[in-house]
């Protein structure tokens, strides 16, 4: 197993997540449409690729990343193009001849802001066109359409078009999901590095996603993290004892694969030069990892793009304070909100986003907040707060 840091892992490099995959497949088998819930870096994309690479019988999965779409038309264009892409169509030939024959026969002349024009000259709006495409397939297998960064797409549309366009897209998807015949042919899985609930709540549109089956992708359990760590060090051909494994994982604390992989990579760089591994090396590896700005910068940039000026300044100050103090109270947070002219409701919306998007938690004490990841806390303190 290669140590792939920051990118989706596939095939032999994927660390199996059997329980999460069982949860997802059970929901698919039961006819649910799914919202895959987890902060960034937890491994959602790798799980979706696992479904693409090893689908169950009678299912055809496709993965579509719509992060860069900033309009309804561009979103639908990405979906249609993915379904009509030569590589995807070619892959169907060995999986299902009927599906391959049908999709090869469908001709799309153009995709515009107004809708989709088919080869027969008929022009339909995007939702109707998508419905027709699926209806025309009339296949014996079910299509699983996995849309990554859907929440970011909705946020982009709010920002670059207007909220009513985002609501239009959300409503169109809900109407498709509520169509019983359509849902017999298609399962949607939505995922992303920001919370869809927190995005749609800003435009009072939570009702358009309340039919989704929420499935969480949690961090690794301590036993899972230990096995993962051992596998990484075996792959790196470095011997690590139990004491150092315990120290490494206790220091990382938030046991998502990304942080374990990142620190293991830095340990290997030191080991290559010094041929030793102890707690001092682990500490140095963590210190070195903080210089990898590209791995952490998105935690700040996401806030800048997602929030208004006052909300961003408030959220940034809250994170600054937690990075300095390690923990702060809800009372202190609400006092900070008043400095940025946010009312209680606005401040709590920001706080909810910080929790959902993986920055902080109040798991230990209900009214006390801390970073999920001590490593992110150290990076934030070094590069943002001071």
Short description:
With 386 residues, the protein is α/β, with parallel strands linked by helices.
Would you kindly provide a written description of the structure presented here, covering whatever features stand out?
With 386 residues, this protein is of the alpha/beta class. The protein folds into three domains: 11-216, P-loop containing nucleotide triphosphate hydrolases (Rossmann fold); 222-289; 293-385, Winged helix-like DNA-binding domain superfamily/Winged helix DNA-binding domain (Arc Repressor Mutant, subunit A, Orthogonal Bundle), CATH 1.10.10.10. Helices cover 58% and strands 13% of the residues. The chain is built from 19 helices and eleven strands. A hairpin with a 2-residue loop joins strand 10 and strand 11. Helix 11 runs parallel beside helix 13. Keywords: ATP-binding, Nucleotide-binding. It holds the Pfam family ATPase_2. GO terms for molecular function: ATP binding. Residues 14-235 form the ATPase domain.
Topology diagram in text:
Blueprint (H helix, E strand, L loop, with lengths): L17 H12 L4 E4 L6 H10 L5 E7 L6 H13 L1 H10 L1 H9 L2 E4 L4 E3 L4 E2 L1 H12 L4 E7 L1 H11 L2 H16 L1 H4 L2 E6 L4 H6 L11 E4 L5 H14 L6 H11 L4 H18 L4 H11 L3 H14 L2 H17 L2 E2 H10 L4 H13 L3 E6 L2 E4 L2 H12 L1
Parallel strand pairs: 1-7, 1-8, 2-6, 6-7
Antiparallel strand pairs: 3-4, 4-5, 9-11, 10-11
Helix pairs in contact: 4-5, 7-8, 11-13, 13-14, 15-16, 16-19
InterPro entries: ATPase_dom, P-loop_NTPase
Pfam family, one: ATPase_2
GO molecular function, one term: ATP binding
């Amino acid at each position: 197993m290669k140590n792939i840091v920051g990118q989706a892992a596939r095939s032999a490099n994927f660390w199996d997540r059997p329980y999460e995959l069982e949860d997802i497949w059970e929901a698919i088998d039961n006819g649910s449409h799914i919202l895959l819930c987890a902060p960034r870096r937890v491994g959602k994309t790798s799980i979706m690729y696992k479904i693409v690479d090893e689908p169950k019988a009678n299912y055809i999965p496709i993965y579509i990343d719509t992060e860069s779409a900033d309009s309804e038309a561009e979103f639908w264009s990405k979906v249609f193009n993915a379904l009509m892409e030569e590589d995807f169509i070619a892959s169907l030939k060995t999986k299902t001849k009927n599906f391959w024959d049908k999709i090869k026969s469908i001709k799309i002349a153009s995709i515009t802001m107004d809708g989709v024009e088919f080869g027969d000259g008929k022009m339909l709006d995007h939702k109707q066109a998508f419905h027709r495409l699926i209806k025309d397939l009339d296949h014996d297998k079910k299509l699983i359409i996995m849309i990554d960064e859907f929440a970011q797409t909705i946020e982009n549309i709010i920002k670059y078009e207007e909220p009513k366009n985002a609501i239009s897209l959300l409503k169109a998807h809900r109407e498709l999901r509520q169509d019983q015949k359509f849902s017999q042919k298609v399962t949607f899985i939505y995922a992303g590095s920001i919370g869809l609930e927190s995005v749609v709540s800003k435009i009072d549109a939570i009702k358009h996603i309340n039919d989704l089956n929420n499935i969480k992708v949690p961090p690794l359990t301590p036993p899972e993290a230990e096995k993962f760590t051992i596998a990484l060090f075996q792959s790196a051909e470095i011997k690590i004892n139990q004491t150092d494994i315990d120290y490494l994982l206790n220091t990382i604390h938030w046991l998502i694969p990304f942080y374990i992989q990142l620190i293991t990579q830095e340990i290997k760089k030191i080991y290559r030069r010094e041929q030793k591994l102890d707690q001092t090396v682990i500490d140095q590896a963590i210190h070195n990892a903080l210089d990898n700005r590209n791995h952490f910068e998105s935690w700040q940039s996401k806030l800048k793009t997602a929030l208004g000026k006052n909300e961003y300044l408030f959220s940034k100050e809250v994170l600054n304070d937690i990075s300095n103090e390690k923990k702060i109270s809800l009372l202190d947070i609400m006092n900070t909100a008043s400095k940025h002219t946010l009312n209680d409701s606005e401040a709590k919306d920001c706080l909810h986003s910080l929790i959902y998007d993986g920055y902080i938690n109040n798991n230990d004490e209900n009214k006390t907040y801390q970073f999920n990841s001590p490593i992110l806390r150290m990076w934030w303190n070094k590069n943002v707060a001071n």
